[in-house]
Amino acid sequence: MIRVLIVDDQPLIRSGFRALLGAEDDIEVVAEAGDGAEGVALAQRHRPDVALVDVRMPVVDGIEATRRIAADPALDGVHVVVLTNYGLDEYVLEALRAGAAGFLVKDVLPEDFLHAVRVAARGDALLAPSITRRLIDRFVAQPPQPVPDAALDHLTAREREAVALVANGLSNLEIAARMAISPVTAKTHINRAMTKLHARDRAQLVVIAYESGLVSPRAV
Questions:
Q1: Can you tell me where the transmembrane regions are (predicted)?
Q2: Are 118 and 81 spatial neighbours (Cβ–Cβ below 8 Å)?
Q3: Cα dist from 205 to 62, 126, 156, 197, whole Å
Q4: Beta bridge partner(s), residue 62
Q5: DSSP string for 71-110
Q6: Which of 11, 16, 65, 129 shows a CA-CA span of 20 to 30 A to 4?
Q7: Quick one: how far is CA 37 from the chain centroid?
Q8: Tens-place pLDDT, residues 65-109
Q9: For the chain, how are helix, strand and coil distributed in percent, rounded to 5?
């Protein structure tokens, strides 16, 4: 059973998500919160598999709530999915930096919403290649000043290559084809790189790749 926490300041949104999720045999909504502070407290109490967290909320916003959940070792198994009305904006990018597994726009189709919850619960990155490319577009428009990451020195050449391909928007199957390796080996390279770089998921891996200077957006 996938256990879900809903954190949103709009009761109507929460009730809609609860009804949609509650109709599924393999999903259970364990709690609801109206702001980020309450959401973090309920995450600590219930330790859900997935926390659906709105970006903009009173008291504590979704970015800070995500940061607190990601920083708590006891909540390592909680996968935060950020909810937004606005698509990819600076708030979502900050949430990814803070440790979110990915994000959803609130007008997503119900079947895509349910699929996303299941993907996040498995621990897979909720960041499709198309979304990765939108992230790349954002970095191209406003490229950060690269900050060298000493952890990159611990990556093997193949791991660095795999990370670069992730940051260029390729799926695991595409990475495997590009590197002439099996999809399992490609996933292994990516998982090891995430461990070495202390990235919670693929979304953070993309951010690290650009902010460390491993990949230049102008080269995409």
A1: none
A2: no
A3: 20, 12, 15, 8
A4: none
A5: H-GGGTT-EEEEEESSSS-HHHHHHHHHT--EEEETT--H
A6: 129
A7: 20
A8: 999 999 899 998 899 998 887 655 567 677 777 888 877 878 888
A9: 55, 15, 30
